[in-house]
Amino acid sequence: MGPRDERRSPVMADVAKAAGVSHQTVSRVLNDHPNVRAETRTRVLEAIDRLGYRRNLVARALVTRHSRTLGVVGFNTTLYGPASTVDGIEQAARAAGYFVSIVSLRTIDTAGMRDAIDYLADQGVDGIVVVAPQRSAARAFESLPRGMPAVAVEGQHEGEVPVVSVDQVGGARLATEHLLGLGHETVWHVSGPSDWLEAEGRTEGWRAALESAGRTVPETLTGDWSPRSGYLAGRRLLAMAGQVTAVFVANDQMALGVLRALTEEGVKVPEQISIVGFDDIPEAEFFLPPLTTIRQDFGAVGRNSIEVLLRQIGRGGECERERLIVPPRFVARSSTSSLR
Amino acid sequence: MGPRDERRSPVMADVAKAAGVSHQTVSRVLNDHPNVRAETRTRVLEAIDRLGYRRNLVARALVTRHSRTLGVVGFNTTLYGPASTVDGIEQAARAAGYFVSIVSLRTIDTAGMRDAIDYLADQGVDGIVVVAPQRSAARAFESLPRGMPAVAVEGQHEGEVPVVSVDQVGGARLATEHLLGLGHETVWHVSGPSDWLEAEGRTEGWRAALESAGRTVPETLTGDWSPRSGYLAGRRLLAMAGQVTAVFVANDQMALGVLRALTEEGVKVPEQISIVGFDDIPEAEFFLPPLTTIRQDFGAVGRNSIEVLLRQIGRGGECERERLIVPPRFVARSSTSSLR
DNA sequence: TAACCTCTTGTTAGCGTTCACAGTCTTGCC
DNA sequence: GGCAAGACTGTGAACGCTAACAAGAGGTTA
Description:
6-stranded parallel beta sheet; alpha/beta; 4-stranded parallel beta sheet; DNA-binding; homodimer; 12 helices
């Protein structure tokens, strides 16, 4: 047995030999174990530095049974909202010393979600964050390996899994009440796709605000979050000739579409029709006119979900069946005004 | 030594015992080794199924020295462009059977980039994709562990690392030539931040198109990709009273800002000033007016980069110092027209 | 019959770390 | 001086898998 192949990166035993100690002492230095003589510690550290040693986290994961990796299942992560959520999660996880492994799905269905979870579980993640904005996604939690810590973001609260979400209902209330406060008789609503929990929450908040003010609740128009669907909804609103004076649109992209439909036909916003969006995408401030909207704090959602998940991991997978709600914020701009 | 704890998930040895074979035979079945009797194989598979066995990929990674995980270093991944690039990479990697571990940076500096690469290397990734849109990011490649396969996306081609990128220069040429073709005497340019390679490429293409047409090259205005900076640039363009008839803006978000600045002052687009953007974000089609722009194929960039990276991994880290260019596409809409 | 394949299976030894335990060397105190 | 308590360090055995080799069964050939 000759000397270890020089081209292979050094392992703990190499450091041990170089420092004249046992591999275990090296391990102790690396793990900040208290009982190591200061002189020994510096000798080991010096050897580590000299050899350019880096600890093999895979071997470590094998024995500790912790990979310090979290899995994230996302959906449509090129959209601003989901992208920001995933980004918030990633930042928070890294700040806590965890790696993040991401699976981004194109379509949400229970099977795809289940596959994604299995896939991440196989990889040995310590916990999973599922961004589960659709009803069908929530069911996928049933297939979680037993004892696997998990948290749902923007999901519903049925199973055992804790949920972190923005207060969609409250946000929609803010939007609707703002419009009512400006003197509008009622508020129309362009909602997101019906199987999305966020869409549902926003519709619910809108309806609740109207009802508690004793106003008539108009029929909702439904879009798919895209600017195009907003445009189509806008054209349908135009067809209602004069009835409509205020619209709460379930996201900013659709609001952009509505804006274009109205502007094309010479309808002035906000003089003739007021519009409120949801999300506060970076573009919203520069729409024509700048869009009044509801801002979601995606960073807080990310931080909270990681916090809940790590707490769960700390307790060994036992979860506390909690629901954490992040409040949204009203952002006033120029797409709303009082009548006349 | 009693029977293995029931609560612990089964390992290969458990399957072996259940199927009445050795663990090695189980391994062979799992790895599709040819020399296993059909009857044995089914017995093993049946045992795997019955016990709900899942192979421990961490242990596997330790011995094979392959984690089947790729690292991605991204930057500002909430923006549409970067988010789409990362998404394309993730899709392509997963299709090839690789996990994706992502680090998303907020600021690009050599140190942060270096840390991110170290971080991923520690985790034992098989290769790294660096989305390196800034000059300073490119330098971080020097700190790549030797033998670590890597590919740069939207980076420059100096070091040993292959690069995959969109043809920014060509895209900018398309935009500029389109405007010249409409009869504009020259084309103004709102560029991205100067240390961004993409910004540089777009400026270069714009300049080249003007020069080869023998036109004067106006002073460029510089933004930071944000709608706000576009708005400010727009105001400065307005101050040039009448000189400006056509503008190539380096991305769609800034183009939105320019659009707002012009519209606010009653300048008509495209009647008085024509505008072309870059990226084709989903909103662009619904700007007022719908934005003529250059579309980047982020999916292709992702697929290509993974392909290059996997080829490199297959060769054992030896790289081929290539540069792969993805062509952009001109998308005609309503923000441009000929003069008068 | 012996020699030599091929097919199939089992045995043993790692991969690089941490954990449990067993040492050895101080130090303090009677 | 002796002896226990503590500080420090080393030894061996896991963790769950694959690689390398060995070995038995069965067939073919000389």
